[in-house]
Design goal:
This protein has about 280 residues and is of the alpha/beta class. The chain is about 35% helix and about 15% strand. It starts with a strand and ends in a 6-residue tail after the last helix.
C-alpha cells in the first residue's frame, strides 16, 4: 500500500487532498505539526512514506515584499529539504507552485517549460523552490503550478466576494488581470491521479481550463449562487494599488497532461458549478 505524506495539511488544498485520499494510508501534518524549514523534522516526517505532497506555502503575497526571507524559508528552503529527504528515503515528491513565477506579459498560455521571470518576491521564492526540486529530484518529482485557487477550507477570493455580496449592493472587480480560477477539489483529485498514473516526472500546470478575469469570475460566482451579476462592476488595477505587483496575464498551458496521457482539467466554469453543488463556496 502506498503511504502518503501531506504537508500544510490544514490549508485549503491540504484539506481537499485528505478528502481525495480518503481510505488510503495518509499522514496529514499541518504547519503546526511539521515545520518544513526544519531539516531534522522534515527527514523524520518523510521517512516511511512513498509519496510526499507539499502543500505548505507562504502565500501572503504583499507581505512577502518586506519579508522575503520568511517567504524564501517556506517556499524555497522547505521544498529543498523535502526533496533531499524524499531522495534519501526513496519517495516521490509533489510540490505545489504558482502562476506567479511568470511575469504576466504574455498573450498566449505559458507552456510548462517557458522561462520564469517573477515580478514579485512571492514569485521569486516559489521559482527558487521549483528549481531546487528539479535539481535534487529530477526523476522522482512533480512541480504542479496552480493559480487563483478557491475552496471550502480557507480564505480565498470567492469567499471574499460572497461576503461582500452580503454587505454591499455592488462590488468593483478588475478586468485587466486574466487567469484561471481553480477549485482545490479538482486540483487535489488531479494530483492524486498524477501520482497514481505514474506519469513522468516534471512540471505540470494544475489549473482549470479556459480563462477569465477576476471580474468574469465574480460574475460567474454570482450567477451560480442566484445573485444578480450586474451587481459586479468593472474596474482596473489602478483602483487597487498593492505592495506586490501582480501578473496581468496568468493563463497556463496544459500540454504536459497530454504528453502524460491525461486529459487537461475541466473548464473553470464547469468546476465552479461543481464546487457550488458540493457546498464548497461559502462566505
Amino acid at each position: 500500500m502506498t503511504r502518503w505524506l501531506i504537508t500544510g495539511a490544514a490549508g485549503m488544498l491540504g484539506r481537499d487532498l485528505q478528502a481525495a485520499l480518503a481510505g488510503r494510508d495518509v499522514t496529514a501534518l499541518s504547519r503546526a505539526e511539521l515545520d518544513i524549514t526544519d531539516p531534522v523534522a522534515v527527514d523524520a516526517a518523510v521517512a516511511g512514506h512513498d509519496v510526499v505532497v507539499n502543500s505548505a506555502a507562504y502565500t501572503k503575497v504583499d507581505d512577502a515584499e518586506t519579508h522575503e526571507d520568511d517567504a524564501y524559508a517556506v517556499n524555497a528552503t522547505g521544498p529543498r529539504l523535502l526533496a533531499e529527504a524524499a531522495v534519501r528515503h526513496g519517495a516521490k515528491l509533489v510540490t505545489v507552485s504558482t502562476d506567479y513565477v511568470f511575469d504576466g506579459h504574455g498573450t498566449a498560455p505559458y507552456a510548462e517549460d517557458a522561462p520564469t521571470d517573477p515580478v514579485n518576491a512571492y514569485g521569486r521564492t516559489k521559482a527558487a523552490g521549483e528549481a531546487f526540486v528539479r535539481e535534487i529530484a529530477p526523476d522522482s518529482s512533480y512541480v504542479v503550478r496552480t493559480a487563483w485557487i478557491y475552496g471550502a477550507h480557507g480564505p480565498n477570493f470567492a469567499a471574499t466576494m460572497l461576503r461582500l455580496a452580503g454587505s454591499h449592493d455592488t462590488v468593483s472587480v478588475v478586468t485587466d488581470q486574466v487567469g484561471q480560477p481553480t477549485w482545490t477539489g479538482d486540483l487535489a483529485a488531479r494530483i492524486v491521479e498524477l501520482v497514481d498514473s505514474d506519469a513522468p516526472a516534471g512540471t505540470y500546470h494544475g489549473t482549470n481550463a479556459g480563462q477569465g478575469s477576476w471580474f468574469d469570475f465574480t460574475q460567474a460566482i454570482y450567477r451560480e449562487l442566484g445573485l444578480d451579476p450586474d451587481r459586479v462592476l468593472p474596474t482596473d488595477s489602478t483602483a487597487f494599488v498593492r505592495p506586490a505587483p501582480r501578473p496581468a496575464y496568468s493563463v497556463l498551458g496544459h500540454d504536459g497532461w497530454s504528453r502524460a496521457g491525461l486529459s487537461p482539467m475541466r473548464d473553470w466554469r464547469d468546476a465552479l458549478r461543481a464546487a457550488v453543488a458540493a457546498g464548497a463556496l461559502t462566505a
